[in-house]
Design goal:
The protein is an alpha/beta fold. It has a domain at 26-203 and 294-415: Alkaline Phosphatase, subunit A, CATH 3.40.720. 31% of the residues lie in helices and 16% in strands. The strands form two sheets. Strands 1, 2, 3, 4, 5, 6, 7, 8, 9, 10 and 11 form an eleven-stranded mixed sheet that branches. It has a four-stranded antiparallel sheet with strand order 12-13-14-15, with helices on one face. The longest helix is centred in the middle third of the chain and has 37 residues, at 284-320. Residues 339-491 form the N-sulphoglucosamine sulphohydrolase C-terminal domain. One of its GO terms (molecular function) is arylsulfatase activity. Keywords: Hydrolase, Signal. InterPro entries: Alkaline_phosphatase_core_sf, SGSH_C, Sulfatase_CS.
Length: 496
């Protein structure tokens, strides 16, 4: 008797954590949700964003049949924290996951749990990268940590599993298996489908090992940036193509974790190219240019596999009729540098890493081929998904639903300013801690442990090469931004 009383008390406490309007069991006409997230996929590597270096026809379908966001941003440009923000709708300092060394507290309320309570069947497949086991998901099949590009070990609801093959393909195989064999047709679903690619060290799949071999990828205008127009943090990072890519990154040494058959295919693709590089004996700018070509081509080859595999899932939705009542979201955990400022990686509040791709398709609700320049954040994803599924957004979520933007009902500006905060220093790539505010035209960044400030006029200086913080002609702009920054820090309960 005591056992059943305790169980009833626990169930009552668990349900109390959710708004009453989320406690629905019947699926009704509520949409399914397919949330697709790549890792480190910069908007520059999507043809629907105007890329001149790659074609991504399957990903472009989502934009063509839905809405493309031209100003979507993240709160903290680093993998684990971004994922925690997406799940909780709360900034890193509130959800407790501020850098990649943290462990996500899965006991806290988050999107998966809210959707479960609303009667949704929930699943997550692919990259998780939050250290703790997934909670709030009826099914999970996720990579251990970062996971390798080939032959991954994965953690599942029923124990660990070892796979053989290319990870991007395997993640999709598992996703399609769940949709075909384990999905409950009597319930709406939320499926979180997350790729490792194109994360470092950019190992292409067998189908794309020789893509771009006969192409010279255009160099970004800022490949040889000297950082003279900014304060010291931009100079003292460790993420340059010139100096910080390893022989492993550049595929100049044997790659780990391949089978004999995979190694043979790999060596056939890279052996001759590597011999030609060694014979050229490049130095100086010529060496930097070679490293750029090798790095970017491998990155794009990984993106090609993501595009192929997203296409497989979109085809399945079309063929089964699920597409008509499924919201499809494609994004990345943050942006990425494809040689801009001479860099790879992310972390900065500068635009390439701060901004992320975001496309959303929802037949009958979102106008096909629509675009928006409204500023949204990954902070808003959970509230938007909840409201699209006719659920109340919890009061303690710090994001806001951009559903009215999606449906064309938004009146006026959705958000007039964004707050960003990066914490991971000391850490990989030596990017100084900083926070800041971005508005429609301006960006103010404070490197608070260094004690320096930067201000950029994005209209006059879109590449963010020259800070105008000390320019007297921007004194009024600076004062306004500093005040707005204080307001945002208070709004989001930032104390550090």
């Amino acid at each position: 008797m005591k056992f059943w009383s305790a169980l009833l008390a626990f169930a009552t406490l668990s349900l109390a954590a959710y708004p009453p309007s989320t406690l629905h069991a019947a699926p009704g006409d509520r949409p399914n949700v397919l949330y697709i997230m790549a890792d480190d996929h910069g908007y520059q590597a999507l043809s629907c964003y105007g890329s001149q270096i790659i074609q991504t026809p399957n990903l472009d379908r989502i934009a063509k049949e839905g809405m493309r966001f031209d100003r979507a941003f993240v709160t903290n440009s680093i993998c684990g924290p971004s994922r925690a923000v997406m799940l909780t709708g709360k900034y890193s300092h509130i959800n407790g996951f501020v850098h990649n060394g943290n462990r996500f507290d899965g006991s806290q309320p988050h999107l998966g749990k809210y959707m479960q309570a609303a009667g949704y069947q929930t699943a997550v497949v692919g990259k998780w990268h939050l250290k703790s086991d997934p909670t709030g998901f009826d099914y999970y099949h996720v990579l251990r940590g970062q996971g390798p590009y080939y032959n991954p070990k994965m953690l599942t609801s029923n124990g660990p599993v070892k796979h053989e093959g290319y990870t991007t393909d395997i993640i999709t195989d598992v996703t399609l298996e769940w949709l075909t064999e384990q999905r409950d047709a009597d319930k709406p679903f939320m499926l979180v489908y997350q790729h490792k690619a194109p994360h470092r060290n950019w190992m292409p799949g067998p189908k794309h090992l020789n893509d771009f071999d006969d192409v010279t990828i255009p160099e970004p205008a800022t490949l040889f940036d000297d950082y003279s127009g900014r304060t010291s943090p931009a100079r003292y990072q460790k993420m340059t193509i010139a100096n910080h890519l390893s022989p492993h990154d550049l595929k100049l040494v044997p790659q780990r974790g391949l089978t004999k058959a995979q190694t043979k295919v790999w060596n056939e693709a890279y052996g001759e190219k590597n011999r030609a590089f060694k014979e050229a004996n490049l130095t100086g700018d010529d060496l930097v240019r070679w490293k750029y070509q090798r790095y970017v081509k491998d990155y794009l080859r990984c993106v090609q596999s993501v595009d192929d595999n997203v296409g497989r899932v979109l085809d399945y939705l079309d063929q089964t009729g699920l597409a008509q009542n499924t919201i499809v979201i494609y994004t990345s955990d943050q942006g990425w540098y494809l040689g801009e400022h001479g860099w790879y990686d992310k972390r900065w509040m500068y635009e390439e890493s701060f901004r992320t791709p975001l496309m959303v398709r929802w037949p009958g609700k979102i106008a096909p081929g629509s675009t928006t320049d409204q500023m949204v954040m990954n902070l808003d994803y959970a509230p938007t998904i909840l409201s699209a599924c006719d659920q109340q957004v919890p009061d303690d979520m710090q994001g806001q639903s951009f559903l009215p933007v999606l449906t064309g009902e938004q009146q006026g500006v959705f958000r007039d300013a964004l707050y960003y905060h990066y914490y991971e220093f000391p850490g990989a790539h030596s990017v100084a801690k900083h926070y800041g505010v971005r508005t429609d035209r301006y960006k103010l960044i404070h490197f608070y442990e260094v004690g320096s400030w930067e201000l950029f006029d994005l209209e006059q200086d879109p590449h963010e090469l020259n800070s105008v913080y000390e320019d007297e002609s921007y004194a009024e702009v600076k004062a306004d931004l500093e005040q707005r920054l204080k307001e945002l820090r208070k709004q989001y309960q930032v104390t550090d």
